[in-house]
Amino acid sequence: MKILLTFATFLILSFQTLNLASVRESYKVAAQDKSQLDSFFNMMEPITKSNDVALVAYKGAALALRAKYAKTIKEKKDGFISGVDYIEYAIEKEPNAIEPRFVRLGIQENAPKILKYRDNIEEDKAFLLKQFQHISSKNLKTHIKDYILQSKLFSDTEKATIKE
User: Fold this and answer.
1) Exposed (0-12), middle (13-18) or buried (19+): which is 88, by Cβ within 10 Å?
2) Which of 85, 86, 102, 111 is the 20 to 30 Å CA partner of 76?
3) Which pLDDT value is given to residue 139?
């Protein structure tokens, strides 16, 4: 019985890891390619605030990214606020989780200044740089490294501290 329980737990955790890897890749692609946004949004649609905080943060990112292409200003604003709500919920629930902070930093860096969603940029930058070496997931580490190296928020000195 213990072996069966251990195996089931392993399968569940493996599925979640695979799922997060595909979510990360879909987020990266959707953030750069509008034609891929619907696919990412549909992937994240069933996620609720009761899911893992990383998935909750990515759902927030999907909502915020989709709001960018809404037809009316009200739809843009409401969609963005809804997305931010998910991201902030994830961070509030687990303040030391790196993935929601990574997502928030990406959204804040690219949010129009008029939305005034830029208050945590320095905090999240410092958090990512401090925690980078402690990330156990190679997939997550690669995504964060790629983001930092292309981001205009990080100085050349800060980029040089990212080692793998």
Assistant:
1) middle
2) 102
3) 95
User: Residue 47 sits in which domain range?
Assistant: 2-160
- Residues 161, 156: Cα–Cα separation, whole Å: 9
Q: Which residues contact 93 (CB under 8 A, 6 or more apart)?
A: 53, 56
CB 88 within 8 A of CB 130: no
Q: Measuring CA to CA, which residue among 20, 12, 78, 8 is closest to residue 47?
A: 20
Total number of domains constituting the chain: 1
Is residue 83 within 8 A of residue 98, CB to CB? The reply is no
Question: For 43-86, how does the pLDDT look when each residue is reduced to its tens digit (9 = 90+)?
Answer: 999 999 999 999 999 999 999 999 999 999 999 999 999 999 99
Residues 80-89: contacts with CB within 8 Å, 24+ apart? 80/111, 80/115, 80/117, 83/59, 83/107, 84/60, 84/117, 85/60, 86/49, 86/56, 86/57, 86/59, 86/60, 87/56, 87/57, 87/60, 87/61, 88/60, 89/49, 89/56, 89/60
pLDDT at 164: 54
Q: Are 117 and 84 in contact (CB under 8 A)?
A: yes
